[in-house]
C-alpha cells in the first residue's frame, strides 16, 4: 500500500493480480487500474509533485499511471529481474533497484538516465540530502542496504559511480530499516535491538552519533517524527519512544494489545500507530494547542476529548496564598474532538466543524448547537456567545433566557451591508465588536441590544483586538498599520513604528506599559512597579493601585496613593489606604468628610486633610455661612489669628473674645509680651460675669495678665493678680519662676511657698538668709541639698546638734560622723553610724580616732571597714593581733585573697597549723590548707575546728585527692587514731555524696542506740532523711526502718503521758516485733588480743564467747585489728572488709571499715577470728540493752488498752529464759498473771484506714500495705500510717503528719 503525497488516494497491489486498486478516501470509492503488463506488480511508488504512480513488476518491467489524466505508460525491459524497490525524489526522479544487482535512475517519463551496478541484492531505497561542505539544493542522495542487510550504501546522483559504503558490527544483527532525519542524519534499526544514529557529512561518515540497545531480543520497525524530535521503535512486543536529539534517551514505553511489529506517525506528529497480531493501536503523541481565557481563568485541551480549567490568578480570600503556578479547577469530558475552544463566565464551548457544544463548568449535559457553516472563531462573555463563519457573525445566548426571548440570537452584518464580510470579532460583557473587510468597526451594546457606535476606517480591516471593557480597540488594517480607537471619544490614535508582519497585537500605550513588572531582579522589578503605580494613579485605577502597593508595601507609596485618592474625591479608597497605614487621625477625619454633602465643603475638608490650608480656606470662604464657620476653625487651627479675628468680627461676633484670647496665648508663646498683655486685657468679658463659662474665660485672661505683667516689669500688678487665683498652683509656680529669673527672690519665694513648692522656697530663703522662714519649712522638706545647706549654716554658727540632725536628714553620714567625732566627741554614735551605713570614709575617720586613743582592736576593725587592708595588717602585726585581723577579714565581703595569704604565711612561719590552714582556705589555696589543717593538733576543740575547716576545703574544691586524704585521716589510716564519724558524715553531706552520708548516718544512729541515746540517734537519722528528700532522693531501707523505730520509741512516752494508751499499745506492738533492734542487757565483755593465729587462740576465744553467753541472734563473729577488737555488724557478708569498733567514748561504739589480712572460719563457715601482729592485751566494752523494758511496757500498755491477745503474746515472750531474770520485780506477778490467764475469745479486728496509694484498708498501726506492697509513710505526731484525705506536713522538718492529730 502507498498513499499519494496529498493523502487522498491509497494505492494497493496484491500478489495474485495484475491490476492496481486505488481508493479515494474523500469520495469513499475504489477503482481498479490495469497496468498494461501481464505479470503481477512487485512494488509501487507515488511521485511528490503530481499524482503519478510508478508500478514495477516481478519481471523487471515498469508502468507509469497519471491519476489526473488516467494515462498509462508501460515500459518493457527496464530491468532483467524483479524490481524490489522504487523511490521518487522531490525533483520527480525515479530510482529503481532490481534483483539483477543494478540501480536505474529515470525521469518522470520513464526514460533511463543512468544505470549503476550494485555489489549485492538491494533491500530498500530512500532519497535525502547528504551533508557536504557545499550544499546542493534538492534530494541528491540515494541510500540502500544490502550484503545480507549488514551494509548501507550512499549514492550521490551526481556521482553514482563512487558510492559510500557503511558496514556495521556483526553483534548489531542485520539492518531492519533506516530513516533519514534532520540535516542529513540517518537512524538505523538492527535486528538485535540496537538503534544507531550516523551522520552523512563527509567529515563525520563512519562515526556513530549515539548507539542504544532499545530492545532485548529483536527490533522490527522504526519510525521518526521530525516535528517532535522523537523516534518510535518496535520490538519484543513493545513500542518505545526515544529522543533523537538527546542521545537516544528513552522517553516512554508502552505494550500495545497484540504486541507491536510495525509503527508509523501521522504527518503532523499528533498520532502514532502500532500494528501487532490482529490489533492496530493508535496513540496520541501530541495535541493541537487549543486554549482560551476569560478573566482569571483559562481552559486548555489536555487530551483528544478532555479539557482542563485552571485558576491562573487567586481571587477573593485566596489572594493571601498566591501561587506562581496555575491551579487546576476541574476537568471536562468533551463530546467531540474540538477544532476550537472558548471559555466564558460559566461555560466552555467546544467546536467541531459547524457544531458547537456549550458545557457548564458546574457540570451537567452539554447544550449542542448547529451553525450554517464551520466556525472560524468563537468568543464568550457572561451568558452570551459570538461565532464567526464564512464572513458572517452570530451573537446569541448560551441557553435560553426566559425573561428575554427576543434576545435569543442576532446575525451580523445588517442587511444594508450584506456585501461586507466580517473578518474578526470581539465580545465583552457590554459590547459585541466586529470588523469588516470594507473598514467598518461596529460596537453592538449587549445590554440595550442595539448598535452603540460605528467607525469607518480608511481601508479594510484585517483584525481587531479589544481591552477587557471594550472601551478601546486596536485596529490592524490591510496595510498592516495599527491604530487605537476609543468609541467614547470617537478618536483614533495611530501607533508609531507598528510592526508590519506581526500576527499578535499586544502593544500597550506608554501609560499602560507593564514591561518589567515581573523582572527577576528584585530591585528592577520594584522600580518598574513604582513607575507603574504612578501610571495607574494617573488613570485613577485605584483597585490595581491597591494590588501593587500591597506587593511593594512602601509607606511613601501608600501615602501617595491616599493623597491622589483624596484629590480625586475617592474618600472610601483613601480610608482603606490610611487604615492600612494605621493613621487613626486621618481615618477619623476622612470618615467625617464622608458625611459632608456640599461639594465646596467637601473639597475644603479634603484640602485641609492634605495640609493645603490656603486652598481649603478659599473653598470654605466661598461656601456661605457654613463655610465661614469652617474657615474660622481652619484659621484658628493654622494659628492665623489676625485673619481669624477679622473673620470672627464679621461672621461670628460671639467668638471674638475667644479668638482674641487664643491670639494672646500665641503672642505670649512668641515672647511678644506687651502685645499679648493688650490682647489679654481686650479679651476680658464684662457682661454676664456670673456665667460659669464667662468666669472660666476671664480666669484664663487674668492668668495671662499676671504672667505678661511680670514679664513686662509690672511686678506688683502681676503678683497681686496671681494671688487672686491662689488656688491655681501652676500659675503661682510660673509667676514665681519668672520672678526668680528676674532676681525678685523675695516675691518668688513667697509665691513658691503659696504654691507648695517648699524646696525652691527654702532655697531662696537660704539665699536671702531668712533662717526663721527656713526653720518653719524644714519639717516639710525632703530635699538633701536644702538640709545640707541648712546644716552647714548651723555648723558655722556652732549649733552642732541642729547641724547633726540636718546632716542625718540629708543622709550625709560622713559629715554626721565628722561632727560626732570632731565637734560633739560622741564616739559611740559615730561607731553606730559607721556600722549602720557602712561608710568607707566614715570608717576611716573612726579608725583614726581609735588609733589616736590607742584602741588597737577597734582601729584594726574600722581600718578593715575602710578597705585599708595593708595598714590594718601592719597595725595588727605590730601589736600581735593578726588572728583578730584575720577574723575581721573573714567577716568582710570585699576582702582580697592576697590578704588571707599574707596571714597564712605569717602563721605558717609560726608553725600555727590551724590558723595557717584556716587562712589558706580563705585564700582559695585548698591544697596547702588541707596540709596544714591535718597537721593541727592540740586540744579536742582545736582538732574539731581544723577538721571542720578541712571539710569545707574539700567541699569547695573539685580535687578528689584532697577528699581522699581527709577520709584517710578521719578513718585513722594515717596516724591510727580514727576520728568521730560525725565528721565523716558532714564531709559526705558537704560533697553531696548522699549515699555514703546515709550509710554513715545509720552507723552513727546505731552507735547512739547502743549508748542508750535514742533521741540523738533519731535526730541524726531524721536530719539525714530530710536532706535526702529535699534533694529528691529516696532514703535507704535501713535508715527508714531505724528512723521509724526510734521515732516510735520517742512517741510512746508522749502518748502514755497524754493517757492515749491505745496509741501507745499499738506503737509498742511495733517496737516489740522488732525488739532485736534495741540492746538486750547491760553486760561487760572482755576480749583478748593474740600475737598470731593458732588453735589455742581459737579454742580460748570460742570458750570466752560461750562464757559470756552472747544472746540469741547477736553477732557470732569476732575480729581483731591492730588497734582493738569488736563485733561484726548484723547482716554483713563474710568478706575481707569487716566493721570494727575503733573508739570508746562513754560506752558508745563507733565503726570503720578496714582491710584484714587473715580470716579463720568455724564450722558455720562464718568468719570467727581475725588476728594480726599486736601486743597481748585485753579490753573491756560496756553495752546497754533495753529489750526487756520494751517488752514489759508492751504487756502493761496492751492490758490497759484492752489488747489482751497482744499482752498475752508479749508476756509469753518475757517468760523465755534469756528475758525472765531481767524483768523488774514489781512487774513479775502481773506478767505471770497475764501468761496464766490466756484469752479464749477471738481477737477483735484492728481499726483500719485507707492506704494513701491504693486506698485498700490497712490497720492503722501497720506501715506495710499487703495490697500494693508499699512501705507507708508514718505520721510524725502519732506514729500511725498517714491518710491521704487528712494530710499535712511539719513546717520545720517537712515530714508528713495526720492534720487533725498534728494540730491537736
TrEMBL record:
Compartment list: Cell projection, Cilium
Pfam families under this entry? Beta-prop_WDR19_1st, Beta-prop_WDR19_2nd, TPR_IF140-IFT172
**Alphabetized InterPro entries for the sequence:** Beta-prop_WDR19_1st, TPR_IF140/IFT172/WDR19, WD40/YVTN_repeat-like_dom_sf, WD40_rpt, WDR19/dyf-2, WDR19_WD40_rpt
Task: Identify the residues that the record assigns to the WDR19 first beta-propeller domain, covering every copy.
Answer: 1-276
Record's Gene Ontology CC terms? Answer: cilium; intraciliary transport particle A
Q: Where is the signal peptide?
A: none
Q: Which SMART domains match?
A: WD40 (SM00320)
**What are the WDR19 WD40 repeat domain coordinates in residue numbering?**
300-503
Identify the domain of life. Eukaryota
- The residue ranges of the IF140/IFT172/WDR19 TPR domain are 773-880
A Gene Ontology biological process annotation? cilium assembly
Q: Which UniProt keywords apply?
A: Cell projection, Cilium, Repeat, TPR repeat, WD repeat
- Supply the PANTHER family for this chain: OSMOTIC AVOIDANCE ABNORMAL PROTEIN 1/WD REPEAT MEMBRANE PROTEIN, WD REPEAT DOMAIN 19
What's the name of the protein? WD repeat-containing protein 19
Please give the organism: Eumeta variegata
Amino acid at each position: 500500500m502507498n498513499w499519494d503525497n496529498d493523502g487522498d488516494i491509497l494505492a494497493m497491489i496484491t500478489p495474485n493480480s495484475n491490476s492496481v486498486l486505488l481508493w479515494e478516501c474523500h469520495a469513499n470509492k475504489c477503482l481498479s487500474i490495469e497496468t498494461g503488463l501481464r505479470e503481477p506488480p512487485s512494488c509501487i511508488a507515488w511521485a511528490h509533485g503530481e499524482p503519478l504512480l510508478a508500478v514495477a513488476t516481478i519481471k523487471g518491467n515498469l508502468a507509469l499511471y497519471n491519476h489526473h489524466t488516467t494515462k498509462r505508460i508501460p515500459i518493457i525491459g527496464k530491468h532483467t529481474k524483479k524490481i524490489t524497490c522504487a523511490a521518487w525524489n522531490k525533483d520527480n526522479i525515479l530510482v529503481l533497484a532490481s534483483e539483477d544487482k543494478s540501480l536505474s535512475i529515470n525521469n518522470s517519463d520513464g526514460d533511463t538516465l543512468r544505470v549503476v551496478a550494485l555489489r549485492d541484492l538491494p533491500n530498500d531505497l530512500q532519497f535525502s540530502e547528504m551533508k557536504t561542505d557545499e550544499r546542493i539544493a534538492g534530494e541528491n542522495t540515494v541510500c540502500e542496504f544490502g550484503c545480507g542487510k549488514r551494509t548501507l550504501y550512499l549514492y550521490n546522483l551526481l556521482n553514482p559511480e563512487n558510492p559510500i559504503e557503511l558496514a556495521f558490527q556483526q553483534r548489531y544483527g542485520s539492518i531492519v530499516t533506516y530513516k533519514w532525519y534532520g540535516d542529513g542524519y540517518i537512524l538505523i534499526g538492527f535486528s538485535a535491538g540496537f538503534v544507531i544514529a550516523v551522520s552523512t557529512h563527509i567529515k563525520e561518515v563512519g562515526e556513530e552519533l549515539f548507539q542504544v540497545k532499545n530492545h532485548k531480543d529483536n527490533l522490527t520497525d522504526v519510525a521518526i517524527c521530525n516535528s517532535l524530535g522523537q523516534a518510535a521503535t518496535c520490538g519484543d512486543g513493545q513500542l518505545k519512544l526515544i529522543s533523537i536529539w538527546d542521545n537516544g534517551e528513552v522517553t516512554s514505553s508502552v505494550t500495545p494489545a497484540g504486541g507491536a511489529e510495525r509503527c508509523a506517525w501521522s504527518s503532523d506528529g499528533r498520532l502514532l500507530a502500532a500494528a501487532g497480531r490482529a490489533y492496530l493501536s493508535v496513540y496520541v503523541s501530541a495535541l493541537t494547542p487549543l486554549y482560551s481565557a476569560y478573566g482569571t481563568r483559562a481552559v486548555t485541551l489536555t487530551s483528544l476529548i478532555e479539557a482542563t480549567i485552571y485558576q491562573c490568578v487567586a481571587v477573593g480570600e485566596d489572594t493571601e496564598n498566591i501561587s506562581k503556578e496555575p491551579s487546576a479547577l476541574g476537568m471536562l469530558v468533551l463530546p467531540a474532538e474540538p477544532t476550537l475552544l472558548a471559555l466564558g463566565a460559566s461555560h466552555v464551548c467546544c467546536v467541531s466543524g459547524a457544531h458547537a457544544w456549550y458545557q457548564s463548568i458546574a457540570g451537567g449535559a452539554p447544550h449542542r448547537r448547529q451553525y450554517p457553516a464551520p466556525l472560524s472563531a468563537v468568543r464568550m462573555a457572561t451568558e452570551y456567545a459570538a461565532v464567526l463563519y464564512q464572513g458572517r457573525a452570530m451573537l446569541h445566548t448560551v441557553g435560553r433566557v426566559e425573561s428575554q426571548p427576543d434576545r435569543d440570537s442576532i446575525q451580523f452584518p445588517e442587511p444594508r451591508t450584506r456585501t461586507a464580510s466580517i473578518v474578526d470579532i470581539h465580545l465583552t460583557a457590554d459590547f459585541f465588536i466586529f470588523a469588516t473587510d470594507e473598514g467598518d468597526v461596529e460596537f453592538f451594546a449587549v445590554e440595550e441590544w442595539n448598535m452603540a457606535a460605528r467607525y469607518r476606517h480608511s481601508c479594510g480591516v484585517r483584525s481587531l483586538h479589544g481591552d477587557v471593557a471594550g472601551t478601546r480597540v486596536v485596529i490592524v488594517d490591510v496595510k498592516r498599520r495599527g491604530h487605537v480607537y476609543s468609541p467614547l471619544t470617537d478618536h483614533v490614535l495611530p501607533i508609531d513604528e507598528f510592526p508590519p508582519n506581526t500576527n499578535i497585537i499586544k502593544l500597550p500605550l506608554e501609560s499602560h506599559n507593564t514591561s518589567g513588572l515581573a523582572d527577576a531582579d528584585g530591585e528592577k522589578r520594584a522600580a518598574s512597579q513604582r513607575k507603574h503605580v504612578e501610571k495607574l494613579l494617573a488613570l485613577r485605577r485605584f483597585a490595581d493601585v491597591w494590588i501593587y502597593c500591597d506587593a511593594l508595601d512602601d509607606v511613601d507609596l501608600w501615602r501617595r496613593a491616599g493623597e491622589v485618592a483624596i484629590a480625586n474625591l475617592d474618600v472610601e479608597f483613601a480610608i482603606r489606604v490610611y487604615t492600612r497605614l494605621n493613621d487613626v487621625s486621618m481615618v477619623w477625619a476622612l470618615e467625617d468628610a464622608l458625611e459632608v454633602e456640599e461639594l465646596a465643603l467637601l473639597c475644603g475638608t479634603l484640602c485641609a486633610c492634605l495640609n493645603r490650608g490656603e486652598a481649603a480656606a478659599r473653598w470654605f470662604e466661598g461656601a456661605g455661612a457654613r463655610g465661614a464657620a469652617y474657615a474660622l476653625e481652619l484659621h484658628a487651627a493654622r494659628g492665623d489669628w489676625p485673619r481669624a479675628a477679622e473673620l470672627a468680627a464679621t461672621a461670628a461676633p460671639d467668638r471674638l473674645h475667644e479668638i482674641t484670647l487664643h491670639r494672646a496665648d500665641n503672642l505670649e508663646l512668641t515672647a511678644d509680651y506687651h502685645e499679648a498683655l493688650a490682647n489679654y486685657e481686650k479679651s476680658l468679658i464684662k457682661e454676664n460675669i456670673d456665667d460659669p463659662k464667662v468666669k472660666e474665660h476671664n480666669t484664663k485672661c487674668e492668668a495671662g495678665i499676671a504672667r505678661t505683667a511680670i514679664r513686662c516689669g509690672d511686678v506688683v500688678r502681676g503678683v497681686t493678680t496671681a494671688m487672686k487665683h491662689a488656688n491655681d498652683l501652676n500659675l503661682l509656680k510660673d509667676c514665681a519662676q519668672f520672678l526668680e529669673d528676674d532676681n525678685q527672690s523675695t516675691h518668688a519665694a513667697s509665691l513658691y511657698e503659696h504654691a507648695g513648692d517648699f524646696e525652691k522656697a527654702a532655697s531662696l530663703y537660704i539665699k536671702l538668709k531668712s533662717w526663721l522662714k527656713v526653720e518653719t519649712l524644714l519639717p516639710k522638706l525632703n530635699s538633701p541639698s536644702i538640709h545640707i545647706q541648712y546644716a552647714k549654716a548651723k555648723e558655722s554658727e556652732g549649733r552642732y546638734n541642729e547641724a547633726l540632725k540636718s546632716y542625718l536628714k540629708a543622709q550625709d553620714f560622713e559629715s554626721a560622723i565628722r561632727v560626732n567625732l570632731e565637734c560633739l566627741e560622741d564616739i559611740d554614735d559615730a561607731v553606730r553610724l559607721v556600722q549602720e551605713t557602712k561608710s568607707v570614709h566614715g570608717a576611716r575617720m573612726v579608725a583614726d580616732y581609735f588609733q589616736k586613743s590607742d584602741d588597737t582592736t577597734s582601729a584594726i576593725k574600722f581600718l578593715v571597714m575602710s578597705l585599708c587592708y595593708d595598714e590594718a595588717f601592719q597595725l595588727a602585726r605590730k601589736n600581735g593581733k593578726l588572728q583578730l585581723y584575720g577574723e575581721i577579714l573573714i567577716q568582710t565581703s570585699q576582702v582580697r585573697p592576697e590578704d588571707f595569704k599574707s596571714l597564712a604565711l605569717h602563721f605558717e612561719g609560726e608553725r600555727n597549723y590551724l590558723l595557717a590552714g584556716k587562712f589558706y582556705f580563705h585564700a582559695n589555696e585548698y591544697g596547702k590548707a588541707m596540709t596544714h589543717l591535718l597537721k593541727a593538733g592540740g586540744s579536742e576543740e582545736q582538732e574539731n575546728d581544723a577538721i571542720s575547716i578541712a571539710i569545707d576545703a574539700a567541699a569547695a574544691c573539685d580535687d578528689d585527692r584532697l577528699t581522699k586524704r581527709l577520709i584517710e585521716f578521719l578513718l585513722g589510716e594515717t596516724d591510727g587514731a580514727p576520728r568521730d564519724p560525725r565528721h565523716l558524715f558532714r564531709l559526705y553531706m558537704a560533697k553531696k555524696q548522699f549515699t555514703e552520708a546515709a550509710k554513715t548516718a545509720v552507723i552513727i544512729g546505731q552507735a547512739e542506740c547502743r549508748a542508750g541515746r535514742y533521741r540523738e540517734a533519731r535526730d541524726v537519722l531524721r536530719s539525714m532523711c530530710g536532706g535526702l528528700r529535699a534533694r529528691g532522693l529516696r532514703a535507704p531501707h535501713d535508715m527508714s526502718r531505724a528512723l521509724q523505730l526510734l521515732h516510735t520509741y520517742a512517741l510512746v512516752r508522749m502518748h502514755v503521758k497524754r493517757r492515749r494508751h491505745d496509741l501507745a499499745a499499738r506503737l509498742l506492738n511495733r517496737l516489740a516485733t522488732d525488739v532485736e533492734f534495741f540492746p538486750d542487757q547491760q553486760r561487760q565483755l572482755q576480749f583478748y588480743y593474740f600475737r598470731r593465729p593458732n588453735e589455742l587462740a581459737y579454742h580460748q576465744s570460742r570458750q570466752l564467747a560461750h562464757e559470756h553467753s552472747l544472746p540469741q541472734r547477736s553477732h557470732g563473729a569476732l575480729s581483731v585489728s591492730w588497734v582493738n577488737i569488736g563485733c561484726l555488724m548484723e547482716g554483713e557478708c563474710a568478706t575481707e572488709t569487716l566493721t570494727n569498733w575503733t573508739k570508746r567514748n562513754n560506752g558508745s561504739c563507733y565503726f570503720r571499715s578496714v582491710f584484714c589480712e587473715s580470716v579463720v572460719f568455724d564450722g558455720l563457715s562464718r568468719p570467727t577470728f581475725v588476728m594480726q601482729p599486736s601486743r597481748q592485751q585485753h579490753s573491756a566494752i560496756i553495752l546497754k540493752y533495753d529489750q526487756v523494758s520494751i517488752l514489759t511496757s508492751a504487756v502493761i500498755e496492751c492490758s490497759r488498752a484492752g489488747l489482751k491477745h497482744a499482752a498475752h503474746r508479749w508476756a509469753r515472750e518475757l517468760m523465755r529464759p534469756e528475758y525472765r531474770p531481767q524483768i523488774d520485780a514489781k512487774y513479775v506477778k502481773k506478767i505471770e498473771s497475764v501468761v496464766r490467764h490466756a484469752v479464749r475469745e477471738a481477737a477483735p479486728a484492728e481499726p483500719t484506714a485507707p492506704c494513701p496509694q491504693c486506698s485498700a484498708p490497712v490497720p492503722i498501726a501497720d506501715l506495710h500495705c499487703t495490697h500494693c506492697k508499699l512501705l507507708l509513710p508514718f505520721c510524725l505526731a502519732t506514729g500511725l500510717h498517714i491518710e491521704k484525705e487528712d494530710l499535712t506536713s511539719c513546717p520545720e522538718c517537712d515530714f508528713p503528719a495526720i492534720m487533725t492529730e498534728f494540730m491537736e
